[in-house]
Design a protein that fits this description.
Order of helices and strands: HHH
Strand content: under 5%
Distance between the termini: 29 Å
Number of strands: 0
Helix content: 55-70%
Shape: globular
Largest sheet: none
Structural class: mainly alpha
Number of helices: 3
Mean pLDDT: 85
Low-confidence stretches: none
Length: 84
């Protein structure tokens, strides 16, 4: 996880935008298919977990990654969140 810090600020920003695009695609897919956002996010999370399993990431490590991600976002101010 520390490799991200080694990227230039421009590369960090571009990578964040690209990865955020996957969530935006989830939202658009939910709307296009008339399913709830919660259900779409659940399906996206399942895909993420399948990817972790496919890359042999242990459950404890995956839990630590999820917890770190939640903490990093919860420390941001509400004005930093994009609203749909």
């Amino acid at each position: 996880m520390n490799d991200f810090k080694n990227l230039s600020k421009q590369r960090q920003t571009l990578l964040k935008i690209k990865i955020d695009g996957y969530l935006e695609a989830t939202v658009l897919a939910a709307r296009a298919n008339n399913i709830g956002l919660s259900e779409a996010v659940f399906l996206a999370m399942q895909g993420l977990v399948r990817g972790l399993v496919a890359n042999s990431i242990e459950k404890k490590r995956a839990e630590a990654l999820f917890e770190a991600a939640l903490q990093s976002v919860s420390s941001e101010t509400p004005s930093q969140f994009t609203r749909h």
